[in-house]
Design goal:
This protein is α+β, with helices and mostly antiparallel strands. It is built from 21 helices and ten strands.
Length: 443
């Protein structure tokens, strides 16, 4: 069988109904090719969701597709020619076009492919039934594995033998849970889940970048905590990220982000959710170092590593009985964004441990978040040059020491001392020597 039979119809909308898209399909047809939407865009269209990436399958060889598009004046990038993939750009739209293919060889991480004009073989090599949905430009649907029924039932089901699909690419284990978080309804497909449990050790051979990307996509689901719980229960997550186990705290964070807080500054944040999951048996600096090690292992950026580490530590400084002075002090040290993270994490940690909130407790947490919105960071009213101009100490390390003394005094007095008062304070607290750990003497 080289062709697929039509099974239904949908009304194209969004990017599917633009002149740019019509121009692209016309260019491919001009060379005798058949092109169809495939996978996610069909899935989302059937559920009437916002349409994201535009993936297109085509029976032309990639070089022929490129020529057809270039002849039509369309910009083309050869993003993955050896795997049959090119990217077309028209105005603000991007289209990923992949030639029909079959797997020649797989090793659990990568696949060697051969091109084909057989739509059935292309469908059969895909991972899940609803990812093998195709759609003509006019909305005609082709559904060789009853993926639409699975999609509407919230069932994530492997095509063919689940163990075989997983052995071709072990990342499909994480994709199984990721798609369940976004589209599934309990219970998990028992056959697929058990195949994931059996194949979980294969995830050790998958690059950390691919694991990171899948975990972030999963954590962008509205309520991923139950799925994360399944990943722990089926011994999947412990193989790759054994520190991510605090599911009760994640449940509260997802509730705060999506339901409890009508705050445009607080949205679904996969890095914050990952920090909520993180648990270490180490405290203090060791715990921060452990968090940084976990973040670096996922090849996060330096800024992400720093934020992740800070979130896993700073929430321990926050409580809902802090007075306004202590809140302002934390805001000064952390900044509004990091303070907001710390409050959300502290709220979630407290709520996950408590049986029920005390009266007024949630309102108090919200008041602290409101402080972050209103925060305008003040500047310490003195600088190093003020110290030098006043000849309080010679140039060198004692300038920094004296500034730190002044800043601590300023913070203890709720950031109210002005320049004159701070200069007087520093004049009375000049260090006796650089980096002295002794009590400061008065001049």
């Amino acid at each position: 069988m080289t062709k697929l039979n039509p099974t239904g119809h949908l009304a194209p909308y969004g990017v599917m109904a633009t002149p740019e898209t019509a121009r692209l399909f016309a260019a491919l047809a001009q060379k005798g090719g058949t092109a169809r939407y495939v996978g996610g865009i069909v899935r989302d269209a059937l559920l009437a969701r916002d349409l994201g990436d535009v993936d297109i399958a085509c029976d032309l060889k990639p070089e022929t597709s490129m020529k057809a598009l270039e002849d039509a004046g369309i910009r083309v990038i050869p993003t993955g020619l050896q795997h049959g993939t090119i990217t077309a750009l028209i105005n603000e739209y991007s289209y990923e076009i992949t030639t029909l293919r079959v797997d020649v060889m797989t090793d659990g991480r990568h696949a060697e492919v051969a091109f084909t004009d057989n739509w059935w073989l292309d469908a059969k090599r895909r991972d899940f039934t609803f990812n093998a949905l195709y759609c003509d430009p006019d909305g005609t649907i082709y559904d060789p594995f009853d993926g639409e029924s699975d999609l509407r039932a919230g069932k994530v089901r492997f095509i063919g033998v689940a163990e075989d699909r997983i052995a071709e690419d072990y990342l499909r284990i994480l994709r199984f849970f990721r798609f369940f978080a976004h589209f599934g309804r309990p219970p998990l497909d028992a056959i697929g889940a058990e195949a994931c449990r059996k194949g979980a050790s294969g995830l050790r051979g998958i690059s950390r970048e691919r694991i990171r990307d899948e975990m972030f996509k999963l954590l962008r689901a509205k309520t991923p905590a139950a799925t994360i719980g399944n990943m722990v229960g089926f011994s999947v997550l412990p193989v790759i990220l054994p520190e991510l186990v605090n599911i009760p705290r994640l449940r509260i964070v997802e509730w705060l982000e999506t339901t409890a807080l009508a705050d445009p500054a607080i949205t679904i944040d996969p890095l914050r959710r990952m920090a909520a999951l993180f648990t270490s048996d180490k405290g203090g600096d060791e715990g921060i170092a452990h968090a940084a090690q976990c973040a670096r292992s996922l090849r996060l950026s330096n800024d992400e590593v720093e934020r992740f580490s800070l979130m896993t530590a700073s929430f321990r400084l926050i409580s809902n009985v802090m007075d306004a002075k202590r809140i302002r002090r934390h805001l000064y040290h952390l900044g509004a964004d990091a303070f907001r993270d710390a409050v959300i994490m502290a709220w979630a940690d407290h709520a996950a441990r408590a049986e029920r909130p005390m009266p007024g407790e949630n309102a108090r947490w919200q008041e602290m978040l409101a402080c972050a919105h209103e925060w305008q960071a003040p500047q310490l009213p003195v600088k190093g040059r003020d110290i030098l101009q006043a000849n309080l100490v010679p140039p060198g390390p004692m300038v920094g020491q004296l500034l730190r003394l002044a800043e601590e005094y300023w913070l203890e007095n709720d950031m109210t001392p002005d320049h004159t008062r701070l200069m007087a304070y520093m004049a009375d607290h000049v260090p006796t020597r650089p980096d002295s750990n002794l009590p400061q003497e008065t001049k």
